[in-house]
Amino acid sequence: MKRLCDYLDSDLVKIELKNGISYLGVPIDVTYADESENGEDQITIEDPNIRMRLHTVTKSNIKKIVEIG
Length: 69
Prior knowledge:
The chain has strands at residues 13-17, 22-31, 42-46, 54-58, 62-67. It is 0% helix and 45% strand. The radius of gyration is 11 Å and the shape is globular. It has no helices and five strands. It has one domain: SH3 type barrels.
């Protein structure tokens, strides 16, 4: 898997979590372990259909990230 910050240039990504849930969104921010509350790298994506609906996912919960656009 690429570094989370490498996805910030993507227009749209699909994040598949280890628990089977998937999120589709536009990557808008990466928080690094030393700045996050839980000590892990996190990526925040915005739902393309609902403005300002954000999903923040920790790196350890991510199964894979697929760039769609």
